[in-house]
Amino acid sequence: MFHRWDMVAMKQLPDYMQIFIHALADTYEEFEKDLSSEGNSYRIDYLKKAMKDLSRVYLQEAIWGVERYVPTFEEHLSVSLLSSGYPMLHCATLVGLEDINLTKEVYDWVISVPQILQSTALISRFMDDIVDVERDKIKQEEGQVISSVQCYVLEKGISEEEACLEFQKMIKESSKTINEELLKPSSIPIEARKPALNLACMMEVIYKDHNSYNEPSGVMKDNIYSLLVNQVPII
């Protein structure tokens, strides 16, 4: 359905999925109306492409899980970096930028998942999987695809602790790559590249010590209250 972007085909899905698809379609239509008046409706075509790519890798992971297929680490990354959702989120972020002119060249760059986006996606995937080692084992038993940590453990013949240490090294290298990509001269405006840094920083907040996405009580709850609820005193 996503690949054809056919909302009629939505009726073939279970009711609970139709609710999600309908809400998503309404959001895209609203974006398209707003952007059409500004001559930027082409941005939605790119966002649809990003969503199609995301749905494709979700499906691949589901197939791997059902078939109990254990991919190579390289195979896993080719899918799981996209399924982190960050390449799609980066594209979605740019769709809403109004203060700069983003050409089709910029969106072609985003859709190609350049090095800076790959690094951000790697940080997202690895930080998530490091703190979710035990949870991911349970998910695997329930029929979901093997995690990147377990995939690395099996391929390299090392312990989970050693794999997580190696992942931490790769996360640091990816952070360096993001900085390098932001600082070097480029035809892509810095405003179009900077969301990669912001998204990577967000992962530090969510997954620094534990999975605050699934368990938001504590630090994450305090952060949300500080951002949205508690008033900042004006001196």
Automatic annotation (TrEMBL):
The keyword Magnesium applies. This is (-)-germacrene D synthase. SUPFAM superfamilies: Terpenoid synthases. Residues 2-176 form the Terpene synthase metal-binding domain. Keywords: Lyase, Magnesium, Metal-binding. One of its GO terms (biological process) is terpenoid biosynthetic process. GO terms for molecular function: magnesium ion binding; terpene synthase activity. It holds the Pfam family Terpene_synth_C. Signal peptide: none annotated. InterPro entries: Isoprenoid_synthase_dom_sf, Terpene_synthase-like, Terpene_synthase_metal-bd. Transmembrane segments: none annotated.
